[in-house]
Structures are given as structure tokens and as C-alpha cells.
Amino acid sequence: MRQKCFLSVLLVLLCLLSGCSHAVSADIRVVKTEITAYFSTLFDTVAENISVRTLEDSFAHIEEPAFVDWTVYRAYYEELTEKEKLAYRCIYNQIFAQPERIAVPWLKTDELDAVFSALSNDNPHILFMDDEAVLLTAGMQCYFVPSYTVTYRRAQEITEKTVAAARELSAVAPENATEYEVLLAAHDALLDNCVYANTDDAAQCSSALLNAEANCSGYADALKLMLDMAGVHSCVVTGYASAADEAAQSHMWLAVNTDGIWSFCDPTWDDPVSADGTQSVEHTYFCVDEAYLSKTHSDITMPRFIICNSAQTDYYRMRDLFCTADDYEHVLSDGIAAALRDGKTQAEFRFDVLQTLHTACAYLFDGQQVYVLLSENEWQRPTLVTDRIRYSANEERLILKLIFSFEE
User: Domain spans of the chain?
Assistant: First the structure.
């Protein structure tokens, strides 16, 4: 998880109080200073009376970085005030050149916190800015003083390679694919090419896309960057997640808009490591609504205008893999056939309630029906072993996964 820490440094000139006109160098660098309540009140009063329009006019000449050639969807930007949006643009439009400081509107500490958080959440391709920043004021001018983790040349190299990798993986969807199909292709491509790793480097999308290792931040940022490339709207979401009987841990995933409908997508939890150390792509948390997600995820933080309350884009419903008491036999039969036809090594199903899951398991395994279904589809995959199959049933998430066996 990202932890954003900001040191707000306020240089309030004594001349403002005494009437003197002594100048103070704008090159002063201060790491931390204690500000009295009086000076804080004075700062807030001045900040609230600065004209946003005047500031906007003074920064109108700033241009977008030339090497950013796609449209980034900025959900957190939309949550900012007009003054905060101006500061966001001032920082974004210059940060890739790695200046020592960037002139911004006069901001309070909480306003800078909101701006920096929005920048980080909206723009996973900003790979070189540290989590600590300084707000410096000199006279009536306010500066954002960033801290960089690598040199300018190294940052540009990493950024260009990461962007190229994201563009390549985001292009795997078939021509004329819907937004949902683009998301599914990007989701599966990322998970096919990445494994979970809990290291510092794994928190960035560059690790997921270039080193094939990521933690939840790396997974979420990488998928967002890929979707930005493909023109599909998404935003990172933070909160906590916990499996059954485990303590909740800080976590990050995505909210995604496909064909006008917002839903959640958690690529980290769709790329689990099994007991034998192997990984396989799953879709348990692909386009789910908040009602389902809340079984395992909590304290969700995301833009207020995003509502994920529709279950109609759920992977299992969209692909006819959702089982009810009335149709589970038919769904299981068709789902196994489709998985084998499509060259998959497993089949996944979701159930409406726990009782239906229990009934389906009894039907498949106690009644030996699963081997009948495998035999009926042997013609599609000649190497399919029809008398052996592995399975896992997750009662918390109402998921049944069938893992096929094949001859060597």
C-alpha cells in the first residue's frame, strides 16, 4: 500500500507582520519547521483569498510532456477543488522534467495531500517521485518541492519501457472488442505474465510489467496503465482485505467502467498461489459488485461518484457460469465443454447460495457425473484424462474450480 507523507514547510516573512520590505531568497531549503497556531491561521487566511483565476492565467503556458501520448482517465482529479486541480496540472505538466521545484497555487497542507494523492492514484506512469514532498513558501509564492528516487535519464528510460510493455499487453484483445472484452484480455494477459511478490520494488507497475513481479499496488497500477492505453476508464481503490479467519491487511484494487457500468476488479486476488506453489488465473473478483466484494474487502476508499452496485457484468454471469438450484446441471455441463473447447486447463463456476454449491459437488463427485462429462468431451482434447480431476470449493466465495488432468 502507498503511504503518502508530506512535510509542509511554511516560510512566513516577518516583513508581512512588521511592515518591513526585506527580501528572502527563494532558494531557501527547509526540511521541517514548527509553525505556531497564529502563523497557521495567517497562512489559511491568505490562502483562501488568493484568486484562482489569476493563478490559472499565470500558468497557462505550461505544456503536456511530449512522451505521454495517451489519454489518462483521472477519476481522483475530478474530486478536487478548482484550486487543487490547478495545482495538480502544474505539477503533472512539469514533473517528468524533474525540476527542483514547481510553482503552484498557495495550498494548505490538507490541500497538497489531496493533490498528491490524486496524482499518485491517477497516474501510475509517474514512477520516479518519492512518497515524501515539501511545500515551500517564499513571500507570496508557493512551491511544490518533489523528491526523486532515480535520475532524470533513468526515470525516462524506465517510464518508456513500462509504457511500451503496457501498450503491448493491452493490445491482446481482438479487433472491435467491447470494453468488457478489452478488460478481460488485459486482466488475463497481466496475470499470465506476473507473479505475486511482497517487496518494495513490487509496489510499482514497472515491476509488474518489466520484472513480472508485483504486490497489490503493482498489480492494480499495471492494469490501470494498460486500460488507460486501451481507453477503458478505471481508477485504483484502497481499503482492507481478508480471507476467512485471517486479519485484514491494507490492499489495493480497481474500479472499472465497462460499457457504462462500474464494477470492481481485483487482479491480485485473481492470481492466487496454490498449496503446491503453482499459480493460475482466476476470475473470482472480475467485475463484481460491492455486495459481493464486501464479503472479503472493507473500508473502501474511492471517488464518491463511482458506484459499483450492478452484478450484471460479473464474469460468471456474463459467460453463463453462474449456477442456481434450477440450472446447475446444465451450466456445469456446458461450462466444462466450453473450457475444454477453448483450450483451458480449468473450469470455474460461481453459485447463488451455499446449498447449491453443496448440491453440485454431490452431483459431480458423489454421483461420479464429472467423469461422464469429461468422457463426453474427450474428443475436444485427446490428451484429456477422463478418470482423474482435481477441484477446490470455496464456500466463502461460492466458487467451484475444476482442474483438468492431461497426459504428458
Answer: 5-149, 154-314, 319-408
Phi, then psi, of 33 in degrees rounded to 5: -145, 150
User: Which of 302, 309, 311, 225 has its CA nearest to residue 267?
Assistant: 225
Residue 3 has pLDDT above 50, yes or no: no
> Residues 6 or more apart from 406 whose CB is under 8 A from it?
345, 381, 383, 384, 385
Those residues whose C-beta lies under 8 Å from the C-beta of residue 170, and which sit 6 or more positions away, are 182, 186, 189, 226, 227, 229, 230
Determine the pLDDT at residue 116: 93
**Which amino acid belongs to residue 177?**
A
pLDDT tens-digit profile of 133-187?
788 888 788 999 999 999 999 999 999 999 999 999 999 998 899 999 999 999 9
Q: Cell digits for 47?
A: 490562502
Nearest CA to 224 among 148, 316, 126, 297? 126
For the domain covering 154-314, report its CATH number. Answer: 3.10.620
Give residue for cell 452484478: 311
Which residues fall within 8 angstroms of residue 91, CB to CB, at 6 or more apart? 102, 104, 115, 116, 119, 144, 146
Which three cell numbers, joined as nine digits, stand for 150? Answer: 532515480
Residue 277: its pLDDT value, please? 56
Distances (CA, A) of 124 to 159, 219, 253, 359: 10, 11, 13, 45
Minimum mean pLDDT among 12-16, 82-86, 179-183: which range? 12-16
Q: How far apart are CA 154 and CA 164, in angstroms?
A: 15
**Cα angle for residues 349, 186, 271 (degrees, 5° grid):** 50
CB atoms within 10 A of CB 305: 9
